[in-house]
Amino acid sequence: MTSLTDLEYAYNKHLGNRVPVSSSGQANDAFEVYALSLVLKAAQKEGAIISFQTVNGTVNPSKLIFRSSPGRIYSTADDYAHALISFDGELNFEAHVGVYVEGLAGVVHECDVLVIDAGEGDFCRRNIVHPKKNHTVLTAECKFYSGNLGIALGREFLGTTIDLGKEDRFFLSNRDGKTLDRVLAHHKRQRYLGLTPLSPDAEMQTISQFRTAFRNQISKKR
User: Fold this and answer.
1) Tell me: the pLDDT tens digits for 48-58?
2) Among residues 54, 56, 139, 142, which one has the fewest Cβ atoms lying within 10 Å of its Cβ?
């Protein structure tokens, strides 16, 4: 069973032991930060330069603070950090933990991990609005469970992706679930069940899926 210590060690490794990450004292929060670290690792492997910035504008702060509950991208309740992902200085994204996104129907959805166009992030913070689906590059629903994954999680994820779109929308969990996996496969939803830092193969496969998402973005901008 993957422990909180395993997750903390893993994301610190992928983030280069840059700083202690606060607000990740619970395993589910740590799993979200771990998933973020895999997204950033994938971007790096595709040639991106990674840096960090806080909602108040501090670049590469000495301490990263990530949300431990759903929040607004413009919230200054704490000096929340996000990652900046830059491809050759021409294609720029932001990666966040635990922020809301507005879907096509105007419904707001929580995204455990979110990658959006950097320009959209700046616009939202200036204008006090949620990011829109059309500027969303990648999302990940993260479920860290000690028991079995129920089919209700699959139904919830399918509903979310109807509004946010299904391209590069991922369902990630440390646990396996045959019925859930079968439903998501039938509906052609991207997922990885059984993701853990204790399995290098699981990490590699998940990073590979994220790399494909970034490659697609690079191809669209050519």
Assistant:
1) 999 999 999 99
2) 56
